[in-house]
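Bug #2210: token dump truncated for Probable membrane transporter protein?
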Amino acid sequence: MTLWLLSYLVLGAATGYMAGLLGIGGGGIMVPILVMLFSWQGVADEHLVHLALGTSMAAIVPTALASASAHHRRRSVDWRVAVTMTPGVLAGAFLATFIAAYIPSKPLAIFFAGFMTVIAGYMIWGRTPRPDRMLPHPAGLIGVGAGIGGVSSLVAIGGGSLTVPFLLWCNQSAQRAIGTSAALGIPIAFAGALGYIVNGWHVSTELPTLGFVVWPAVLVMASVSFMTAPLGAKLAHTLPVRRLKRIFALIMIALALKMLHGVW
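Reproduced locally. Full output below:
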């Protein structure tokens, strides 16, 4: 038991730091590692990915709060955009969990890996947006929020893997895109976690769970991510944009490969 708690502590520290640095919520890091840890603890393959997704979404809630707070203090959160997108984000994230609950683990892992790789490719090779491109009107932001919330819930991320590229495409600065993404990670994680609890309520596993959420892992990871997220946010305001994009992309590709290896 001590080994698992230590593993959760290290994972929480790393994901909190990366959430602050890149505005990604940490789920892209947590899911592949949790798949590995839960597998080693004897969780059946049929529930492996679902438990990793649900646990990750629940752990992102406090991580996103800490990350958003740190970015807010540095005036890098566009709260107008975040608040406008929130209704769509809540609906998309919650409803997508009902889809995820009926997808077997391996296809879900393939979707996760493919999604991460596509977004990483865009961050490295994506074209520079036209200088006149602006953020869409409120109805458009709500629609984009629903799409981001839905996909984020399926792959258990705080939304940064989609929100950051979208805001960069709309000519927002990298630091502002990351800060606003961190704020949107709060409603995404909350709605997603609630959905995974509801959809996994009938499931019984070898671990103490609340639906598809392994609650001891959430408590341990959250206890340390609060402290490391502000450190990552501080670094995000000192690194150049191009380097931030490359770090973002390389981490996602590595974790996509790790996810596939963990399931097979």
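Output looks complete on our side. The first helix runs from residue 2 to 22. Marking as cannot-reproduce; reopen if the truncation happens again.
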